[in-house]
Design a protein that fits this description.
- The chain has about 230 residues and is of the alpha/beta class.
- It has a single domain, classed as Uracil-DNA Glycosylase, subunit E.
- Helix content is about 40%, strand content about 15%.
- The protein has a six-stranded mixed beta sheet with strand order 4-2-5-8-7-6, with helices on both faces. Strands 1-3 form a two-stranded parallel sheet.
- Helix 1 packs antiparallel against helix 8, helix 4 (about 70-80) runs parallel beside helix 10 and helix 7 packs parallel to helix 9 (about 150-160).
- It is globular and about 45 Å long.
- The termini are far apart.
């Protein structure tokens, strides 16, 4: 399957709903396909209130990512080498573009927004576009979805989320996007959260490691469907 062509097909129908439209997804489809654990990072919206028309986030991330993506790049670098101990200084020194390449990035709200994202607004757009969100996610057949500040919203969109907690208390969910296997949501904070960046990064890595272990041999847990 050609990821880029399939993305564009979905977006050509989706963009009719809004004046401005953010085209997102896989900045480097080849690198994503080659990745061991197919991971999608879902965010809220692009901060570009003056933008009119379309904005291709894929192009920016593939060629010249904005410095805002440094925090996300640190996450990606850590997750790409989840079996190894990566020093914080090394993660920060890696090029943003290379770190982002093996991942997919989705904004729940495809029209642009401002610096502060209102929960109710994001939820309203996400529920309106639930069919398209699920359709886009299905392109990638992800193993793991990192919900960056949008865990409850995405769970509402996908429905039937089975929630659990890692040993250290991070919430993660199990959803059905494929007929053959589950996809796991990690309910995590937004990259702009006011917290020490290294602690946030390694907290995500800790949860990711535990969730990835379940991909090969999922177990029966006490189910709490919400």
């Amino acid at each position: 399957m050609n990821i880029r062509n399939t993305e564009d097909d979905v977006f050509n129908r989706w963009r009719r709903k809004d004046e401005s439209f953010v085209v997102d997804g896989a900045p480097n489809p080849t690198a994503f396909i080659a990745s061991r654990v197919k991971t999608v990072i879902v965010l809220k919206e692009v901060n570009a209130p003056k933008l009119r028309g379309d904005f291709d986030l894929r192009h920016q991330l593939e060629n010249d990512p904005d410095s805002w993506w440094r925090t996300v790049a640190n996450w990606c670098a850590a997750l790409s080498h989840f079996e190894e101990a990566q020093p914080w200084a090394k993660l920060q020194a890696l090029p943003i573009k290379a770190c982002l390449a093996p991942f997919v990035f989705m904004q729940l709200k495809k029209s642009v927004g401002g610096g502060l994202s209102d929960f109710d607004t994001i939820l309203k757009y996400a529920l309106r576009d639930a069919k398209e969100i699920r359709e886009q996610l299905s392109i990638y057949r992800p193993d793991v979805i990192v919900c960056a500040g949008v865990g409850q919203i995405l769970a509402s969109v996908l429905g039937g989320t089975v929630w659990h907690h890692t040993e250290r208390g991070t919430r993660f969910g199990e959803v059905s996007l494929h007929n053959d296997r589950p996809t796991y949501l990690i309910d995590y904070m937004h990259p702009s959260a006011r917290a020490m960046k290294n602690i946030v990064c390694f907290g995500l890595l800790d949860a990711y490691r535990e969730v990835v272990k379940k991909l090969a041999s999922p177990k029966d847990w006490d189910q709490n469907v919400r």
